[in-house]
Write a structure and sequence with these properties.
Elements (H helix, E strand, L loop, with lengths): L2 E2 L1 H8 L3 H9 L6 E3 L5 E5 H16 L3 H12 L4 H58 L18 H10 L1
Antiparallel strand pairs: 1-3, 2-3
Helix pairs in contact: 3-4, 4-5
């Protein structure tokens, strides 16, 4: 049976060695220790499979506790029917949670769309009101000053008030 290093498993499953050590701390995997002081972790094919099942459970959105229960059942010599029923129950519960979340998300997205539509309507009304006011007052849109142009000459009254205040 092949053995793996933490680096090999991290590379294979595209996770960090720290994540693997975390799963070890949580009791999901338990590698053998070798070398001076047991500093080198050696993962068997069994540990690789447990890690693979753990990552699959995480992708499904299961908690680490649920994953541990399921992985432990997977390895137990008990009847596989009980294991499958337990797994089915966990999946059904998770599906129910996701369906509720999807419903909440759809409601929230509908509310956001309604607010966006109201904002667009209000902005369009403001634009129409501004144009109507400009037409009534006989104003036309003034061209903006060019970049770098001296804008102080455009407001002689403001300059005069500034001089008086000084």
């Amino acid at each position: 049976m092949p053995n793996y290093t933490i680096t090999e498993l991290a590379r294979e499953f595209d996770i960090t060695p720290r994540a693997i050590r975390f799963y070890e701390d949580q009791g999901l995997i338990s590698p053998k220790r070798e070398g001076a002081g047991g500093r080198t972790r050696v993962y068997s094919g069994r540990e690789r499979t447990r890690l693979k099942l753990t990552l699959r459970g995480k992708r499904l959105g299961l908690t680490l506790s649920e994953i541990k229960d399921l992985v432990d059942m997977y390895e137990s010599p008990k009847d596989s029917t009980a294991q499958l029923k337990r797994f089915q129950a966990v999946l059904a519960q998770h599906r129910e949670t996701l369906e509720r979340q999807r419903e909440d998300i759809e409601i929230t997205l509908d509310e956001i769309a309604a607010h966006e539509a109201e904002c667009r309507r209000l902005l369009d009304d403001d634009k129409r009101d501004d144009k109507r006011d400009d037409k009534r007052d006989g104003k036309t849109a003034k061209p903006r000053a060019k970049a770098g142009a001296n804008t102080t000459t455009a407001r002689p009254a403001a300059r005069a008030r500034t001089k008086e205040a000084a």
